């Protein structure tokens, strides 16, 4: 590629095309309206040098080009006069630049002060409209455009007059109103009056920085004013606030809850007292007897996801992860959940008759765009951070009733999860004056400005530029580094350096640091100039209030500061000591350069505002004149309902997310040997050596709320706890709840609806059921307005329940997978007193029926006894499969169980009178389906009668060996085959993937799903997995660099195989490369080293090859005859880049992007070949199940290498295969497109192995999404035992 020297200190280098040719053609065709128009869009690399380009050595220039993947640099780079440059905003540095700078530093390229990736656009008749097209790769918040070569020469030297500046505003009513419009403060009249009074007392005018801070700290988003408001009932008597009613559930039943409402997350008790973790002193991984608890949190990120779906969902997940990490004085996030509610999708290839013409404001994203980009954003953050996302929900809903337009134009984006926290770190500690305040994490950018306020107003009611400015941008690799520092602190045997920790979220530092000071009952002095920045052009307001992600604020004792800094340096994690906590309760933000103070306020002024709101409850008059349901065509309705996005397969949401990272996933979304995504719950293991665990599940019934919001709330709770039931919960009261309330209570009726729902749920359901709600969130701006308030889309009141519980024995859990045995029968337990109301159902949507009566929670008193009875029988293994009845109704639940079981199913409803009307098969009344032994049926029936459920238990079906669903009612018999059912059920996922992913691999996958015989997983092996004990314990290093996230599970596998396992960071080796002499083995784990910015694994490998001393030590290690090394996933990519250092590895491949053009996370089949590899000794001929999780896993071999000869030369231990054991050629059996399905390669003497699948996440049978093997260890443990046998 060509390059050009712009001046002695600035060079620009040409890079690859930004867009695939087909995509570029589509964009320019749309832009030029079909007229031909020349177009090119290329990456360019701009280098800022600290010495002239011509004085940089040829070897270093070569290294620069190699790192940037530049292969042709023989001629000069020429630009058209009117070239358009798309570059980071004035004075800012992109996350790409930051990570690439880390790589250049590691490679000893000190001559490069900074490298930035920009884009060069050459197009005829350029207009700014092109940049604003939905598919054009330009982010107006973080990028700006300029025209001509001169415009880019000063990118690294631009300065702004506003840098660090602030303004004084008048303390007048008019001034505050104007400031609201200009800055988006969202100050209401009461707040303005409060400020007028306080600044009058202070005898000065406010600053813009103070007002922005106040508006964020006192926004609805942060202060929850509505939920804390007072209420008057119909008798004019005072009622408790909504928050008081919610808190009363915890006061009523505190068992198992350790922290509620007082921290970033709630903390509940776990079953475990053992933890495999790092000893921070000797850096050895060990099993420790430590009591650790469960932290739980669920957040929403609705507004940002509406504006910018990828980043909105990514930062939603990232923010919730930080909430968990900042619990107590440091916790470890463990597993996540995500949920989405959007309006109708209206997919290009799947326009359904019930999806009426779209009508929405253009300033917010379409539901289709949200569901294409949002899940990718959430998955990318979870993947790169290293947290499995294991549960969630997805609803697509829209409805017009008269003039009312209901839906989710402002979407719901739920991000939640659970983490682990030791008992000694569960509570924050007392902080004394003089304690240092530290900002941990990335620098500040001009992004996410005013997000707290923006999230508190209706979509469409604020200025469009302020909408976009309120969206944050994500950098999960930076958050991983922060988490590693928190881990080191929290794992200390003695004193944790952290006294207090707070995540940086809404409002940025302007919220986090004052809140930390307030919670410590102190004041603070902060130096504005000490705050880390990536954009030096920002004003004081922007520095203080931007919502740049991946940051925490901490209080650290003076005498622990040295140790804390050492942890940060080791983990390459930025930090800054920005100030001190003071006994004087004044908050002061001072510019140390000029002595001025943008903030100088009493703490009481910042946090003393109390809003006096009293809401009145009006009569709850609900419709009772309901329409009669229409007659339906049973088969057509069933296929229509299966095709509805809320019901259908969610695989498009799931396969993009790494579900096995961390090695402690027991149950993910996929079920059974056919891997059907129908799991009702998710389960994680407490640790690697235990059967105890934690479970979570979700519930929501928003459409019902249009007619009956109170019923919708109660049913959401019931759905969530029923979903958790088959996880092996001991009893109902073990469950703890997060309640996320979404509504738009801007009129008396909707206010009363929300009050009545909260009261009914907390006082009449949670209290008698002994269920506590120790955590939750509200989002009360769920209305979208446009065209000057002429058009409105109103979201139904939506309560999303997330349920969490400790599990004593995860092996007692069951799934919806039907077991195909003659002695088992499928039974139906009705929990609705035989009522079959269809209001709010999917059937009502697809048949376009409104004004139908909705379900409600019946059997309120009996429910706990019934629940505990079922829980007991599940734990006694008297129930074999289980599924709740929810979206789609009973018949859909049965179909999902059939698909998961891979069997035929006979259903007979002919003798159940309330199913004489076949519409009732689609009723979403509460109920469950489960399998029991036929001989136990009468005993169960007697028990249910005794528990108060007379005439509510029915035998409805049995499995068979066919491919068909045979459904019998009182007047017809239907037979529908598996292929037709699966085709409808997977239709939405298929169509979204056609638009989002590689079309050819998407078609191959759909064909695969429709072939039941081909899609069934199979494993077979004939070797024993026997753990033997040896006198010696050889040392193996688990080698890490920034961005690695799979080190713990790698350490666990080798530890259980008999190694002494040491944590070794690249920082350690840069300090002392001789450390490699101490080890017999090296393991390179998975993750996203350096965020994969220059190619997966490349930056890490180059940092080794570019350091002469370190490179020699690695060569020495690899050439010793008593050593071995294993590289998995990202580690495979790193070792493949190091092959020139490794003897006998010239045939090793490069790793390239998967054929699907997507990160793929799947359970696949591999066959073990005869090979030289010591790791696979005596395993030849086996066919095993293993998870793969990668975006760049396609093995591309050198041109002079013949893959088939490699196989015959015993250099290929593993190939992807079909369930028949043949080489996998098509997707998804071959998930990345590697030639001949090759997915592992050994060197010639068998000591060094690289592989993309994850045996370290499947060495225990408990870790596999599905297996037919029993016992603790899976066949994969043999690989680690074989490595131990090197030293027998």
Provide the descriptors you would attach to this structure in a database record:
single chain; alpha+beta; seven-stranded mixed β-sheet; 29% helix
What does this structure look like?
With 1288 residues, the protein is an alpha+beta fold. It is 29% helix and 24% strand. The strands form 12 sheets. A 9-stranded mixed beta sheet has the order 45-44-46-47-54-53-52-49-50. It starts with a strand and ends with a helix.
- Strand percentage lies at 15-25%
- The helix/strand class is alpha+beta
Shape: globular
Distance between the termini: 53 Å
Count of strand segments: 54
Main sheet specs: 9 strands, mixed
Assembly state (oligomeric): single chain
Q: Identify the strand order in the major beta sheet.
A: 45-44-46-47-54-53-52-49-50
Helix content: 25-40%
Mean pLDDT score, rounded? 93
Radius of gyration: 30 Å
Q: Unreliable segments (pLDDT under 50, ≥5 consecutive)? A: 451-457
**SS field, number of helical segments:** 39
Give the arrangement of secondary structure elements:
Blueprint: E1 3-7, E2 10-17, H1 21-31, E3 39-49, H2 58-67, E4 84-88, H3 95-106, E5 112-123, H4 128-131, E6 143-147, H5 150-153, H6 173-183, H7 189-202, H8 208-217, H9 220-223, H10 225-228, E7 230-232, E8 238-239, H11 242-252, E9 257-259, E10 266-268, E11 275-278, E12 285-288, E13 292-300, H12 302-307, H13 309-325, E14 332-342, H14 367-385, E15 389-396, E16 398-401, E17 404-407, E18 412-422, E19 436-441, H15 451-454, H16 464-469, H17 476-490, E20 498-503, H18 509-519, E21 523-527, H19 540-545, E22 551-556, H20 561-570, E23 575-582, E24 586-590, E25 599-602, H21 603-607, E26 614-616, H22 634-643, H23 651-654, E27 665-667, E28 670-671, E29 676-677, E30 682-685, E31 693-699, H24 709-724, E32 736-742, H25 748-769, E33 772-779, E34 783-786, E35 791-794, E36 798-807, E37 824-830, H26 842-846, H27 863-875, E38 881-884, H28 890-901, E39 904-908, E40 927-933, H29 937-946, E41 953-960, E42 964-968, E43 973-977, H30 978-985, H31 987-996, H32 999-1010, E44 1035-1040, H33 1047-1056, E45 1060-1065, H34 1066-1071, E46 1081-1084, ...
Parallel strand pairs: 7-26, 14-15, 21-24, 32-33, 39-42, 44-45, 44-46, 46-47, 47-54
Antiparallel strand pairs: 1-2, 2-3, 3-5, 4-5, 4-6, 7-8, 9-10, 10-13, 11-12, 13-18, 14-18, 16-17, 19-22, 19-23, 20-22, 21-23, 24-25, 27-30, 28-29, 30-31, 31-36, 32-36, 34-35, 37-40, 37-41, 38-40, 39-41, 42-43, 48-51, 49-50, 49-52, 52-53, 53-54
Helix pairs in contact: 3-35, 11-25, 13-14, 14-17, 22-30, 24-25, 31-32, 35-37
């Amino acid at each position: 590629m060509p390059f050009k020297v712009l001046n002695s200190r600035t060079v620009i280098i040409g890079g690859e095309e930004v867009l695939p040719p087909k995509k570029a053609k589509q964009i320019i065709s749309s832009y030029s309206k079909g007229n031909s128009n020349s177009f090119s869009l290329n990456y360019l690399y701009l280098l800022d040098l600290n010495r002239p380009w011509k004085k940089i050595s040829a070897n270093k220039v070569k290294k620069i080009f190699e790192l940037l993947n530049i292969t042709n640099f023989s001629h000069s780079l020429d630009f058209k006069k009117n070239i358009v440059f798309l570059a980071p905003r004035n004075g800012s540095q992109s996350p790409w630049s930051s990570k690439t700078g880390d790589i250049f530093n590691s490679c000893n390229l000190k001559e490069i002060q900074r490298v930035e990736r920009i884009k060069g656009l050459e197009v005829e008749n350029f207009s700014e409209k092109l940049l604003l097209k939905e598919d054009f790769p330009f982010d107006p918040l973080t990028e700006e455009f300029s025209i001509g070569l001169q415009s880019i020469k000063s990118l690294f030297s631009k300065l702004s007059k506003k840098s660090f500046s602030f303004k004084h505003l008048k303390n007048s009513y008019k001034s505050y109103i104007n400031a609201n419009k200009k800055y988006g403060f969202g100050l209401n009249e009461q707040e303005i009056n409060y400020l007028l009074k306080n600044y009058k007392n202070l005898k000065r005018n406010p600053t813009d920085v103070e007002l922005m801070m106040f508006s964020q700290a006192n926004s609805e988003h942060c202060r929850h004013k509505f939920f804390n408001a007072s209420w008057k009932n119909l008798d004019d008597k005072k009622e408790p606030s909504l928050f008081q009613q919610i808190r009363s559930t915890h006061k009523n039943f505190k068992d198992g809850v350790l922290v509620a409402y007082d921290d970033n997350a709630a903390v509940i008790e776990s079953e475990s007292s053992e933890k495999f973790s790092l000893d921070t002193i000797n850096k050895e991984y060990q099993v420790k007897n430590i009591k650790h608890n469960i932290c739980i949190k669920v957040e929403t990120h609705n507004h940002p996801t509406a504006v910018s779906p990828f980043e909105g969902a990514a930062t939603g997940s990232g923010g919730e992860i930080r909430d968990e990490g900042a619990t107590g004085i440091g916790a470890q996030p463990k597993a996540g959940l995500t949920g989405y509610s959007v309006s109708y999708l209206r997919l290009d290839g799947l326009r359904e008759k019930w999806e009426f013409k779209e009508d929405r404001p253009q300033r917010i994203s379409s539901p289709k765009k949200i569901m294409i980009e949002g899940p990718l954003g959430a998955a990318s953050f979870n993947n790169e951070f290293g947290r499995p996302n294991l549960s969630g929900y997805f609803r697509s809903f829209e409805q017009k009733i008269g003039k009312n337009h209901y839906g989710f134009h402002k979407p719901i984006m739920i991000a939640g999860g659970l983490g682990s926290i030791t008992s000694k770190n569960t509570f924050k500690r007392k902080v004394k004056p003089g304690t240092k305040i530290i900002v941990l994490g990335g620098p500040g950018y001009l992004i996410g400005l005013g997000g707290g306020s923006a999230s508190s107003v209706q979509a469409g009611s604020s200025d469009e530029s302020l909408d976009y400015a309120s969206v944050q941008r994500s950098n999960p690799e930076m958050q991983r580094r922060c988490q590693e520092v928190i881990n080191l602190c929290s794992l200390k045997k003695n004193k944790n350096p952290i006294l207090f920790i707070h995540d940086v979220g809404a409002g940025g530092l302007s919220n986090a640091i004052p809140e930390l000071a307030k919670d410590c009952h102190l004041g603070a002095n902060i130096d504005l100039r000490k705050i880390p920045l990536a954009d030096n052009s920002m004003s004081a307001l922007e520095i203080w209030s931007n919502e740049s992600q991946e940051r925490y604020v901490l209080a650290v004792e003076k005498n622990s500061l040295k140790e804390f800094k050492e942890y940060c340096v080791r983990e390459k994690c930025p930090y800054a000591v920005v100030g001190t906590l003071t006994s004087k309760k004044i908050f002061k933000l001072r510019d140390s350069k000029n002595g001025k103070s943008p903030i100088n306020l009493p703490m009481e002024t910042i946090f003393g505002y109390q809003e006096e709101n009293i809401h009145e409850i009006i009569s709850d008059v609900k419709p009772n004149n309901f329409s009669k349901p229409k007659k339906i065509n049973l088969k057509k309705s069933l296929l229509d309902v299966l095709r509805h996005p809320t019901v259908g397969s969610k695989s498009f949401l799931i396969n993009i997310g790494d579900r096995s990272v961390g090695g402690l996933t027991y149950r993910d979304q996929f079920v059974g040997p056919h891997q059907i995504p129908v799991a009702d719950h998710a389960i994680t293991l407490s640790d690697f050596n235990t059967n105890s665990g934690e479970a979570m599940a979700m519930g929501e019934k928003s459409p019902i709320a249009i007619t009956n919001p109170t019923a919708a709330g109660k049913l959401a709770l019931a759905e969530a706890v029923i979903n958790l039931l088959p996880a092996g919960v001991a009893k109902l009261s073990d469950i703890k709840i997060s309640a996320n309330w979404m509504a738009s209570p801007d009129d008396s009726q909707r206010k009363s609806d929300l009050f009545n729902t909260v009261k009914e749920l907390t006082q009449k359901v949670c209290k008698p059921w002994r269920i506590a709600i120790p955590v939750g969130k509200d989002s009360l701006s769920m209305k979208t307005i446009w065209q000057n308030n002429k058009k409105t889309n109103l979201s139904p009141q939506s309560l999303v329940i997330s349920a969490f519980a400790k599990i004593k024995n995860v092996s007692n859990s069951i799934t919806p997978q039907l077991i195909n045995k003659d002695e088992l029968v499928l039974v139906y337990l009705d929990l609705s007193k035989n009522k079959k109301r269809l209001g709010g159902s999917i059937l009502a949507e697809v048949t376009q029926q409104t004004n139908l009566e909705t379900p409600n929670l019946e059997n309120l008193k009996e429910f706990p006894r019934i629940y505990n009875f079922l829980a007991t029988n599940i734990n006694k293994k008297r129930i074999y499969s289980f599924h709740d009845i929810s979206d789609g109704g009973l018949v859909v639940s049965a179909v999902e169980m059939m698909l998961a079981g891979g069997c035929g199913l006979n259903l007979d409803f002919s003798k159940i009178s309330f199913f004489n009307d076949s519409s009732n098969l689609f009723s979403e009344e509460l109920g469950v389906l489960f399998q029991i032994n036929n001989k136990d049926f009468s005993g169960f029936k007697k028990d249910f009668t005794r528990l108060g459920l007379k005439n509510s238990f029915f035998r409805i079906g049995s499995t068979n060996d066919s491919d068909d669903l045979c459904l019998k009612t009182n007047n017809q018999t239907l037979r529908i085959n598996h292929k037709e059912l699966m085709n409808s059920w997977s239709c939405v996922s298929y169509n979204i993937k056609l638009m989002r992913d590689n079309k050819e691999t998407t078609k191959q996958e759909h064909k695969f799903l429709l072939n039941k015989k081909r899609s069934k997983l199979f494993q077979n092996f004939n070797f024993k997995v026997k753990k033997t004990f040896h006198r010696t314990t050889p040392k193996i290093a688990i080698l890490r660099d920034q961005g690695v996230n799979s080190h713990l599970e790698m350490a666990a596998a080798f530890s259980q195989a008999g190694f002494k396992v040491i944590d070794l960071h690249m920082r350690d080796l840069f300090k002392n490369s001789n450390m490699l002499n101490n080890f017999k083995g090296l393991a390179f784990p998975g993750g996203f080293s350096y965020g994969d910015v220059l190619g997966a694994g490349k930056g890490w490998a180059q940092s080794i090859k570019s350091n002469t001393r370190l490179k020699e030590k690695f060569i020495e290690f690899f050439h010793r005859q008593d050593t071995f090394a294993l590289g998995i996933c990202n580690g495979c990519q790193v070792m493949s880049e190091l092959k020139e250092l490794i003897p006998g590895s010239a045939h090793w491949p490069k790793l390239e992007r998967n054929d699907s053009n997507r990160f793929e996370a799947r359970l696949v089949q591999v066959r073990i070949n005869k090979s030289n590899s010591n790791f696979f000794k005596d395993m030849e001929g086996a066919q095993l199940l293993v998870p793969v999780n990668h975006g760049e896993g396609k093995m591309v071999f050198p041109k002079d290498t013949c893959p088939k000869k490699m196989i015959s030369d015993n250099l290929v231990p593993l190939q992807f295969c079909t369930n028949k054991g043949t080489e996998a050629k098509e997707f998804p059996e071959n998930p990345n497109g590697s030639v001949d399905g090759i997915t592992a390669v050994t060197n010639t003497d068998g000591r060094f192995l690289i592989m993309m699948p994850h045996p370290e996440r499947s060495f225990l049978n408990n870790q596999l999404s599905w297996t037919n093997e029993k016992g603790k260890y899976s066949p994969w443990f043999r690989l680690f035992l074989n490595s131990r046998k090197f030293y027998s």
